[in-house]
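Input (Divalent metal cation transporter MntH):
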Amino acid sequence: MEENKQNRAWRKEKTSNSLHEVFSSVPIPENGSFKKKFMAYVGPGLLIAVGYMDPGNWATDIAGGAQFGYTLLSVILISNLFAIVLQHLSVKLGIVAERDLAQACKDHFHPVVNFILWIFCEIAIAACDLAEVIGSAIALNLLFGIPLSWGVVITIIDVFLILFLQSRGFRYIESIVGGLIFIIFVAFFYEIFLSKPEIFPMLKGLIPQKEIITNPSMLYIAIGILGATVMPHNLYLHSSIVQTRNYPRTDEGKKEALKFASLDSSLSLMLAFVINAAILIISAATFHTSGNKDVADINDAYMLLTPLLGTTLASIFFGIALLASGQNSTLTGTLAGQIVMEGFLSIRLKPWVRRLITRLIAIIPALIVSILYGEKGTAELLVFSQVILSMQLSFAVVPLVMFTGSKAKMGEFANKTWLKILAWAISIIIIILNLYLLKETIFP
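Output:
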């Protein structure tokens, strides 16, 4: 009798991935120490963590901190814990099955279903790129006075940056990303030092409050934070780039790779949590406590930091970190776009063509809104892009949880019972919150 479709094993043949052809595998020392082996696996987690600290996060965290103080810190924490679990599953799929999530979907689902999933994923990538376009344009405007509309157009230049970095190798990209993350971390450490947040209200904010669900305005931003934190395209990306490590393709080799890659992922995401929490804490300590609760966008935050904190360095550090954040996220968005298109459709485009298409899709709405509505319109579009990301999340999470829980597909590496329950619980929570948001958006 033929196996149930949901539980059937992978096909024997597997579609190759151009990223693995472009980037030679990073060697893993066979008899090295724990530290040496771990350092060989460090990198993919940082690339994933970038998606959790992009300009979209800034918009939702600033709005949440200014309006509701430290209350939404719990949402950032819970979202980050969700992310750690889901990215672990993504790592497991890539290492054990040697497939990225897009290839796994193509193996399993009907072509029509795959096409729909691909469309949803492309929408998510476009929404993410929209946030990066707006974030970079705002940073250029704040630091150099370049008009928003021109800043949006200038972001096309990063197509050439991507091409240059891809020609240098995967480790080079990881090093650049790590350096930019360090800049962001230092900037916000300095901002927190200046803002002097209250410790006890901050700790209380880590405990979930019922008001987050009952207050529609708070729920809207909370789901925006969820969409900005757990990004659907990151699940596709991570399952691919973990395969750039040259670990032994044996059961023992996969177990070791899974251990180190998951550690890399979890530590990187905890760093992302610290940065996201720092943005909301600075916003709450600087704006909410001073009565500036209507600060809802990055521009307002930048303008008020200097008078409220008493130094122009606060605003400069803020702007530099924002620019670094936008450029960092550009790298991962491009890689994810290649993986998704190749995995679902087996279509290979030159990196610059793929990047240009994605960027143009993002630039058009950003340019129209920046010209017609200026700063306020782009800020609202930035938050809305994160809600779109959250709405697409279920279509990536459900297949991932389903595949990694299948004994036929994953063998002894299939999710244990406790992990299955946890993963499905996270999926259901995400689905329910998004359905509730949809209802509140259509029928407020």
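The two ends are 50 Å apart (CA to CA).
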